[in-house]
Design brief:
- With 59 residues, this protein is mainly alpha-helical.
- The protein contains two helices and no strands.
- The protein has a domain of 33 residues.
- The longest helix has 43 residues.
- It is rod-shaped and about 70 Å long.
- It comes from Funneliformis geosporum.
- This is 7607_t:CDS:1.
C-alpha cells in the first residue's frame, strides 16, 4: 500500500460547508498552477522565438 495523499480520508469528518470550501480551494490551486505553467511556457517560447528572430536578422 502506498502512503500519501488520500482525498477520501482527508475529507472524512468535514461538515458539508467545510467540504465545499475545501473542494473550491483545491480547484483554485489547480487552476492557478495551470495558469503558472502556461505563463512559464509562453515566456520560454517567446524568449526562444525572439532569439531565433534576432539570429535570423543578424546576417
Amino acid at each position: 500500500m502506498v502512503h500519501g495523499y488520500d482525498k477520501e480520508n482527508a475529507m472524512e469528518g468535514l461538515k458539508p460547508k467545510d467540504t465545499t470550501q475545501w473542494e473550491i480551494a483545491c480547484y483554485k490551486a489547480k487552476e492557478n498552477l495551470e495558469k503558472l505553467v502556461t505563463e512559464d511556457l509562453h515566456k520560454s517560447y517567446s524568449a526562444n522565438h525572439w532569439e531565433a528572430i534576432t539570429e535570423f536578422f543578424k546576417y
